[in-house]
Amino acid sequence: MKIHHLNCGSLNARFTRAKAIVYCLLVETNEGLILVDTGIGRQDYTDPSRKMRFFIYWIGVPCKMEETAAYQIEDLGYRLSDVRHIVLTHLHFDHAGGMRDFPEAKVHIYRTEYEAGMNPRGLMERAYDPSHWSHGPDWVVHGDEELDWYGFKSLLIIEGLIPDIRLVPLPGHTRGHCGVVIATEYGWLFQCGDAASPFHPDSDLHGLDPSKYTTAVLPSWFVYRILGRHVPRIRELLRKHGDEIEAISSHDLYSFQKYRSPVGGLEST
Predict the structure, then answer these.
(1) pLDDT for 134-167, tens place per residue?
(2) Which listed CATH number (3.60.15.10, 3.30.70.1070, 3.30.70.100, 3.40.50.720) goes with 3-261?
(3) Which residue, among 238, 251, 236, has the nearest Cα to 194 in the 3D structure?
(4) I need a labelling partner for 72 at 20 to 30 A (CA). Which of 83, 147, 161, 225 fits?
(5) Backbone Cα Rg of the chain
(6) Which residues contact 148 (CB under 8 A, 6 or more apart)?
(7) Is residue 205 very low, low, confident or very high in pLDDT (cuts 50, 70, 90)?
(8) Which tens digit of pLDDT belongs to each residue from 59-78?
């Protein structure tokens, strides 16, 4: 099994000095390739919606086609049709924009997030862009059978999938926001989505000094409003089971750099 770590959109926000990425994972499985989040898609650069033009300008996205998941997957020697499944943490346009580049893939999503995307409400759900699913994806909506994962609820993606991949509901950032956990031979890789971030002073998920992450210090009330209230629980999970679980987050430039391979790609086995 191999996990490729992909930056599917560099972010250089105009209103802070912080730099980030859109962190996606490409997983080789017995069911073909699985893409965890899609990042910003090709059409977002060639024919962006009004929402995407706003996002690209204010978040300082460099619009590099080579950062799209589609480009990187083909550069790895795969065909786009080799991506059989997409697993989404949530439907925000920086996470789901590339869905249209993989029209044959089944798209796995938590039921609450699917319902939120189809009927958005509130500030955070304004960041959905219905054009990203205008092609009519093959949705696979999860939410009926829950399994325990270290005290968190989890949803199995595919029965018999190797490696085991699950959605972990972490609502707050959006109503149906999820993390994604992937079993590896070394333990679990926990993609926390936007429920945890190294870019604010509450986070010490990797034991690093947050002052090295950004010059912008965000108040805790703002962090909780944007990310939700899961950071303390995730921190406690890693305190107890850090030898079994590695945590990353969706805009985590520093973990991404940690996984960088000598040839410029990113992968873990």
Answers:
(1) 999 999 999 978 899 999 999 999 999 999 999 9
(2) 3.60.15.10
(3) 251
(4) 161
(5) 17
(6) 154
(7) very low
(8) 999 999 999 999 999 999 99
